[in-house]
TrEMBL record:
<dbReference type="InterPro" id="IPR050109">
    <property type="entry name" value="HTH-type_TetR-like_transc_reg"/>
</dbReference>
<keyword id="KW-0238">DNA-binding</keyword>
<dbReference type="Pfam" id="PF13305">
    <property type="entry name" value="TetR_C_33"/>
</dbReference>
<feature type="domain" description="HTH tetR-type">
    <location>
        <begin position="10"/>
        <end position="70"/>
    </location>
</feature>
<feature type="DNA-binding region" description="H-T-H motif">
    <location>
        <begin position="33"/>
        <end position="52"/>
    </location>
</feature>
<dbReference type="InterPro" id="IPR001647">
    <property type="entry name" value="HTH_TetR"/>
</dbReference>
<dbReference type="Pfam" id="PF00440">
    <property type="entry name" value="TetR_N"/>
</dbReference>
<dbReference type="InterPro" id="IPR025996">
    <property type="entry name" value="MT1864/Rv1816-like_C"/>
</dbReference>
<keyword id="KW-0804">Transcription</keyword>
<protein>
    <submittedName>
        <fullName>AcrR family transcriptional regulator</fullName>
    </submittedName>
</protein>
<dbReference type="InterPro" id="IPR036271">
    <property type="entry name" value="Tet_transcr_reg_TetR-rel_C_sf"/>
</dbReference>
<dbReference type="InterPro" id="IPR009057">
    <property type="entry name" value="Homeodomain-like_sf"/>
</dbReference>
<keyword id="KW-0805">Transcription regulation</keyword>
Amino acid sequence: MTSFRATRRAAGRERVLAAGLGVLEREGLDAVTVRRIAAELDCTAPLIYQHFTNKDELLGEIVAQGFDRLAERSRAAAVGHPTERLFRAAREYVDSALASPHLYRLMMDTSVLDAGRRSRAASRIARDTEALLGDWAVEGCRALDVRRAAELLWAVLHGVVQIAVLTGMEPSESRRLAEAGVTSLLAGLTANPPADLVRSVRQAEPESATNPKY
């Protein structure tokens, strides 16, 4: 009985999340209220509060789902050799953001989640991005601080999305701009990387080489 109730409660929570996401993507952030979601589900507001303490908690869950969805799509697109995977993931990032602009805006809205919760929500795609850059660095024998490089790559792609939204850029043009940004970034990291993006040779060596255990 307990398992059935837990399953039913989880299903109800997912329905509320799906309804909130639907309202967000169709009508924008200002339309996402507990009353509006209740109307979407043809229920009363108290039923929504059975699953979420308040609207902020609901929005936080939507943000987490948005980052998970972005990570899944980027991961699925990232096939091929390391450089190709980076470009495919970058294009998917931009395409996904522009396909769901209201969700993307919410994900990047710093007033919705504090820094710690936002970092946890984005941890999966952050790890994936660092892994992609790590593979690219290994392929070219580059000593790269992948965490800092991933932050720079995110900045490039976020900038592309913002420019595309502001200018009404066509999707094909936004992809080309993303590719140009990634190309420039990788060229800079290869030819003349900033000092704070380069690990020393000692840091780049495997642990077994720098800290032999015997």
